[in-house]
Amino acid sequence: MRAREADIGFRDIDLLILEHPSVKRWLWGRPNSTVYNNYGRNLLYFIRKHKITPEELLSKRTTKPLRIMDMLQESASEETNAKASRIDLAIRSFCKDNGRNDLPRSKLRYVKQKWYRGYTKEEARKLFAYINKPLFRLYAYMNLESGLRARTVLAIQYKHIKQDLEAGLDTVAIRFEPKFYYAKGKKAGFTFIGKHSIELLHQCIKDGLISTDPEAKLFKGKSPYSSTVEFLTLAKQKAHLDPELQPTHGFRKYFENALDDAHIPREAKEMIEGHYPDTRAKHYSNRDFEYLRAFYKEAHPFIDLEITDPRLPSKMQQLENELEELKMQRNILSQEKDNLTEQQTNQARAFILLLGTKEGRKAIRNAVEFADDLESNPTWQRFTSQLEQDAENRGGITPQEVTERVHTIYPRVIRQLRPDLRPLPPELRKK
Q1: d(Cα 61, Cα 257) in Å, to the nearest integer?
Q2: Residues 130, 163 contacting (CB under 8 angstroms)
Q3: 37: part of which helix (H) or strand (E)?
Q4: In terms of pLDDT, which residue wins out, 351 or 289?
Q5: Distance (Å, rounded) from C-alpha 415 to C-alpha 404?
Q6: pLDDT in the model for residue 1
Q7: CA–CA distance from 365 to each of 183, 221, 421 (Å)?
Q8: pLDDT averaged over the chain?
Q9: 187, 313 in Cβ contact below 8 A?
Q10: pLDDT, tens only, 296-321
Q11: What is the dihedral angle through the alpha carbons of 226, 229, 235, 236, rounded to the nearest 10 degrees?
């Protein structure tokens, strides 16, 4: 009977590990990794198809490198490019981990056949209407709000979210071990979950569906990935969504599109998404959770399915800021008006007091008479005429110079107008 990859389950891979030490060496200790789920399945498919044991595949005496290459080429001619590439990678990984490094370089290159878009906000809303089981709903929200890959979400343990969740924060950082961020291959981002995931987490903990043991995984089961994909695929069909939408990876693409729409800085976006394209991103960009939390909060209205207009919070904040500024300007104008009214009142009071007494009226008459005398004084007339001429010739005179020249001439003018007045002593004149 022809080997079929679809017939291979986790039990078959587990049996393969028990029967063959070489496979155990390759897969043991990483039951949730891509190697276990994909490579193990492809190895089993390959050895069944070509009727060869793992030990024979590793034996350089019985299986020459070119024979392995011929078998890979035969698989490539019968399978799709994507599947043939996966089989080739699995066989090479198995051989390399078991000390066999003599296979020629592969000529197979995976060529992407089609681009798949992410969910739109409206499509995601329709999908969630058919996700009614608490753990599946929690998984979907954590996938959507964190932007993590499907298997990374399934690898989350309570200790990864404990710090912020128990602190009661409105955004919870997912603090993985370094291997999630720096190991070879696909990497996790320094990301968060929002209010919907947090609410569901508290409810699932209350209902006993999730353990608060630090080492406990949030999503358990023999094959949580397969069951999750199957459930989401069924929900997608019930919602009558585009069949081409990827059930789980569509959430990650939705998340990344939301960050794009929020226009957060590129470096922060790369850290949150887990994309490290260059040396700066890998070793120098700021990845502190408190630094990234502000950008995540800024982008969350674009992620949240309940917010129709994601820019509304920022618009409301802008209007509130403008209102505060108008209130401040109103207070300033009101204060200036009060000050002006008080000043005018004081001036009027002083004027009334001045005119209301005999001495005041006499002082005003004397001041008017002095002004008339000063205007008709020849010395003062020559002085003012000279000032105007100097100002015209020189393009203006500074107030300080005018003051100094007035101080020079006013004693002579006073003596001419009021010869009966005694000159001021030098110390009073200086004052």
Answers
A1: 53
A2: no
A3: none
A4: 289
A5: 19
A6: 40
A7: 98, 107, 18
A8: 85
A9: no
A10: 999 999 999 988 777 666 667 677 77
A11: -150
What's the CA dihedral at 95, 99, 105, 110 to 10 degrees? 40
Segment among 83-87, 193-197, 358-362, 424-428 with least mean pLDDT: 424-428
The 8 Å CB, 24+ separation contacts for 171-180 are 171/293, 171/296, 171/297, 171/300, 172/197, 172/198, 173/289, 173/293, 174/146, 174/148, 175/289, 180/152, 180/155
Phi and psi for 245 in degrees, rounded to 5? -65, 135
CB 273 within 8 A of CB 189: yes
Locate 256 and state its tokens: 């990344």
Of 207, 213, 230, 242, nearest to 136 by C-alpha is 230
Phi and psi at residue 157, in whole multiples of 5°?
A: -110, 160
Comparing 417 with 226, the larger pLDDT belongs to: 226
Helix (H, G, I), strand (E, B) or coil at 172: strand
Mean pLDDT of 323-335: 87
Model confidence at 424, pLDDT cuts 50, 70, 90, reads low
pLDDT band at 421 (very low <50, low <70, confident <90, very high): low
The CA distances from residue 102 to 70, 73, 96, 203, in Å, are 14, 17, 9, 55
Do 143 and 248 contact (CB within 8 A), yes or no? yes
Percent of the chain clearing pLDDT 90 (strictly above): 41
Q: Can you tell me the distance from the alpha carbon of 118 to that of 245, in angstroms, rounded to the nearest whole number?
A: 7
Tokens of 421: 């007045």
Distance separating the N- and C-terminal Cα atoms of the chain? 120
